[in-house]
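The protein record minuted underneath.
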Amino acid sequence: MWMRSSADPEGSLGGVDAGWWTRSRYLASWDVDRAEWRVKMVSIPEYYEGKNVLLTGATGFLGKVLLEKLLRSCPKVNSVYVLVRQKDGQTPQERVEEILSSKLFDRLRDESPNFREKIIAVDSELTQPKLALSEEDKEVIIDSTNIIFHCAATVRFNESLRDAVQLNVIATRQLILLAQQMKNLEVFMHVSTAYAYCNRKHIDEVVYPAPVDPKKLIDSLEWMDDGLVNDITPKLIGDRPNTYIYTKALAEYVIQQEGAKLNVVILRPSIVGASWKEPFPGWIDNFNGPSGVFIAAGKGILRTMRASNNALADLVPVDVVVNMSLAAAWYSGVNRYMRPRNIMVYNCTTGSTNPFHWEEVEYHVISTFKRNPLEQAFRRPNVNLTSNHLLYHYWIAVSHKAPAFLYDIYLRMTGRNPRMMKTITRLHRALVFLEYFTSNSWVWSTDNVSMLMNQLNPEDKKTFNIDVRQLHWAEYIENYCLGTKKYVLNEEMSGLPAARKHLNKLRNIRYGFNTILVILIWRIFIARSQMARNIWYFVVSLCYKFLSYFRASSTMRY
C-alpha cells in the first residue's frame, strides 16, 4: 500500500512521477483520522472492467476454465477475442459454441445468460505465418487488445521436436511480434510449466538461460528431415525428459528476448488437475496427466506403477492456476508504469506450502474408488507403487500382462474382439512418460506468489483464491476421482449401487480363484512331498497354538 502525503498533493508518490499518478488505475481517499491520502489498487473485477482480452488455447483444459472464470467473476469485461482454428470440418465459431454449451459453463449461463455476446471467435492458426489472421481481424486486435492470455501449447510428451518447436516456440514468438504492434496492450500473460527447468532441483522465479539458441534451432529444423530430427532429439533435450518440457523452456527465453519492451508475466503451474472449488468441485474433461492414471486405477486395470512413495506429487487445481493468472495479470497491469526490469515469474505449485506425496495419492484414489466404484470395473482397485526396477517388471508381468492375456482369450472364446492387451500396452506407454515426475521431487521458490497473495484485498482473496494452504488433499482427491467418473466417463451417480454390486462380485471371484490356487498348490506340490507336508503341518500347528494362547489370555483377562 502506498501513502501520499497531504503536504505534497501534486508531487511525487513514493518516488513515482505524477504522470503515473494520473494514468494509473488507482483509487485515492482522504483518511480524516491520519490526515493523509490513502491510495489502494483497484480490485481485480474493477481492473478488467471495459478491457478487451485476447485468449489463445480456449479449446484446451486450462483455457476454457480461464474463459469461464473471467466472464463470471469479471462481468464488466468488454470482450474476449478467442483465437481458434478450424478443425474436423468445424468453423472457429462452431468450436467455441460447442465449448460454451458444455457443463463447465452451466453456472455462468445461470448467472449471466448473455455472456456469449462478449466472446468473439477469431479464425487463426498459431503455427502459420502471422498466425493466419485476416487483415481485418488483425487490425481490430491491434487496435483494441488490452490483455493477452497465451495458454495455447501442445502438452503431448511424445510430440516430435519439430512439431513441439512449431507449437510452443514459434507460435509464441509470432504472438509476441503481434503484441508489439498493439496500441493499448497492458499485460502479456504467458502460461509455461513449473518443469521447464526440471534439470535443476531448486527452481527460482526467474527465467534461466536457454539450453540452446532458439533461433539457431528453428533455422536448423528448416533443412533437417524428420529422420535426422528424431536422431538428434535425445542429444538436444539432454537431461530434460521430453520435448514438451524442452520447448517450454525455449519459449520462456524467446519471450524474455523478444518481449523485453512488453509488460510480460510468466505463470508456471506444476501438474494441473481437476478443479478445487470452481465452477464446481472435481470438474475435469480429459484423460491427460493424472486423470487417465486415476481412471485406470479405478477400473482395476492399473495395478502397479513406478514411483517413489516419498516423492512430492505437486498437483495444483486448475481453478488455482486460473485465479493466479487473472490476479498476476491484474497486479502487473495496475503497476505497469513502475514494473520491474525483470519479467515477473510465478511458480504455481503446492509442494512448498502444502506437501502431498504419491503414496498418499495412491491411498486416497484407491479408497475413493472402493467406496464409489466405476462401472464395469475389470478388477477391484489396488495399486502398488515401487521404485525397484526388478519388482516393477515382476508386477507388470503378473498383474498386468498375464490377466490381460487371459481376458483376451476369454473374449475370443465368447466371440468378442480382444482389447485388453492393447489397453495395457497404451497404459504402459503413458506410464513411461510419467515415471520421471512420480520418481523425483523439486523445490520451487514461491516468493512472488506470496507477495501477490498479500496484495489482494479480502474480497479478491475469496473470489480469486490462490492460497493452497487451505487445500484439504483427501477431500480434493475424492472430488477429483468423482469428477473423472461424472465428467470424463459420463457415469451417473445413480449407478453406484450396481457398480458396488459388481465390485463385490469381483471380490468373490478373486477369493474363489485364490482358494482354487491354494488347493492346486497343495495337490501338486505339498501333498506329494513328505518334507513339504511336515512344514505345512508345523505352520498350521504354530498358528493354532498362537490362536489358542490368544484366546486363553483373553479369557483370563475377562
